[in-house]
Amino acid sequence: MKIGIIGTGNIAQYVLESINANKRIEGEVTSIFGRNQEVGLRLESQYKAKFYTDFEEFLNSPIDIVVEAATIGVAINYMEEVLKSNRELILSSIGAFKDVEFLKEMKDVARAFGQHIYLPSGAIGGLDLLQSANALGGLKEVSITTRKSYESLGLDRKPVEECIFDGVALDAIEKFPKNINVALLLSIAGLGADQTKVRVIADPKIKRNTHTIEAIGDFGKMNLTIENEPMPNNPKTSYLAALSILATLQNRDKAITVGS
Fold first, then answer.
1. What CATH number is associated with residue 21?
2. pLDDT, tens digit, for every residue of 121-132?
3. 6 and 90: one domain?
4. Is residue 216 within 8 Å of residue 190, measured between CB atoms?
């Protein structure tokens, strides 16, 4: 499997280190697309993957699947081109689907070209349960409470915890586009971004990003809490989010798939 990566940031570098240097999965990252030439050329030299600043040249390189590890804007700009080039896509910036119409359009494009968009589970769990619970419309309520440090939310530190958002996922992703991808992913698996309740709490004492998911439906009740370690060099990114990309690549060609 030959992998192309969009982006040169922390997640992209972690994937390169895990695959090309440490051989954690079968396959190789052969192509990198980005705008930062200094970083890109360093990654090219370090991991023996060709760096491109021209997206068409990147897509014409020998790759089987594309991993987006950049930003929401980059994901929106290039997603359609990836699918139309007959490549599957692993999407890290789930916030690209905050626009329901855009989500529908990309589903239609993927279907038309026989491709697949993978949404890694990222920093949360319970997604299979929500999808199963909602298979026949039996899911009634879904909420997520996220606790993070002031620093990871890009806010000035205060001595006490504070609820800085209480609403729905659709509005949360607008206010915290780099932090609340998990809420949008939860809404895609469940009731939708306009019905998934979200609370964001800034906590000066917290050591790990924490997500508590609650769901009620015909199946019963679910209460799930995940405490995530941040990536060592970027407190705004969950370490589990990076790991979930590797897991998606590992599971792509397995004969047996666990979950939906």
1. 3.40.50.720
2. 766 777 888 888
3. yes
4. no
